[in-house]
Amino acid sequence: MDSELIRSHHENSRDTQIQYTQNFQYGNFTVVILSAHFSHPSTLDHKSCSIVSSNISIFSPSLASFSRPVPNPTTRQLTLHQLTTMDAFADSGELYTIRNQFYTNQHRKIQEYSLDQFSPENQLKVLEYKIRSAVALEEDASQLIDSGKSLFPNQEGLFQLLSAWNDLKSFGTDDSTYFDDIKSAQFELQAVLTAIYRVKFEKDVESAINILTSYIDNSNNFNELEPFLVLVQLHLATGNLQAANKVMLAFQKFPDSARDSIVYQVLESWILAIKGESDNISNAYYFYDELLSADFDNDPQGKFKLLNMLFVLTLQMKHYPEVQELLVQLKDLNITSGDFIANQITFDYLTNGGAQADELRSQLAKVDPEHQCLAEFQEKNAQFDDIVKKYQTT
Asked: What pTM did the predictor assign?
């Protein structure tokens, strides 16, 4: 690490003004820290500094070969907090495990953490995970949110968002217009939850995609990965593999630490599964099989979702005896979902001629009456009826 440092210490003050340049490698990027202000000169680390805004630039050497001059084409402005957060999410950082648990639906484990197990600069993110996990478990997160407002008084916007998200469980969409009023997201979680709201409650996928795309296009933070996750999922759900690939290509320009994250690995597994072909499906399968090696005893919902992914991938590989074994494991959990029932319908057609398809569709109509599988079945029936009527009148 190369650095030049000029320090000025003010008498009778605990402040130290530091003007320096410091270069170091972060993945494929060169980070240049230009200036900082530290409150406690005796401890020059990320826990004791307050950063001057827009004081860190990241330069990508891969852009140096542009044939035409572009003003500062390789610069992205980050704060020191953003860099230290990136380190916290790295495989040696203290947020690495909890993030993996969150994105694999191990929400009970997350509820067991206390904030004092983490350093102060990471406690806000931990609390966010705890609140969102409570909501995912259909539990009231009001006490956690109130505690957060007291502990982090400068994060009013975040807790207003989380309150609105928590209230949806109790009051539905009639009690607040919070998400309806958002035209463009101001921070990462607002973009993510607004997009999910638009899809889940308004069935407006296009608006959700626009919210996420706009936020990603204007974001400078290499650690803000969840918008990519939701955006790729929406593109794949609408059958737009080309758009999903485009998002992945943008993601691949991020530092190695981002591409080593659980978020990138999940995105990659989805796209591999959609692309098909034996090697792609096998790679996706082994990824989810490895995730399943974690302890899910207290998080059956997380285990159910992983088994359902393996069910689909094994079905794609036409390994029907293994599919049957997975089906037994899934039913033993006494959990169901629209997607799981739809997958059973596919399996029944492939192995049993659709003998139980009508019964399964009846179950699906009770669990998820708006599921795409039912809509497609009704559409095909209508087309068939039209053909029959046409020939009956000739």
From this structure: 0.69
